[in-house]
Sequence to fold (146 residues):
Amino acid sequence: MNAVNVTEETLFRPLPKLDSVLFKPFLEGATKGKLLVQECQQTKKKIWPPRLISPYAPDAELRWVPIEGKGKVYTFNVVHRAFFPYYKEKVPYAIVIVELEDGIRMLGNTMGINPNSISIGMPMEVAFEKVDEEIVLVHWQPQKDD
Fold:
């Protein structure tokens, strides 16, 4: 099991377990700035959240593949109450479900946006937050104009 450096900021912050069998490739990809999901090798359909068996072809192999990391807000919630001390100074903040390519929907916190300005259908892109050398979190931010 990997140890997390405990600081006042991370003491009560919920963080992913790095030894999770299902999420380990996803978390490793995030440390490299890549958004990864599983793909069924028989149907080529993307799968999220990760699974041990493809829901499309139970005998098929699953592989981790990069995806673009752009989509639109499918739904969201603005949080006004801090359930962990870490979030006390961060409320209000928004949690979004972003609909990505092939119908993948991914949940995450937002960055770089007033939570009251989020709307359904808003274009979003992946944003990575480096917590430490081992943990990088996946968040969402408004898409930048290219």
In short: The chain has a mean pLDDT of 91. Residues 24-142 form one domain.
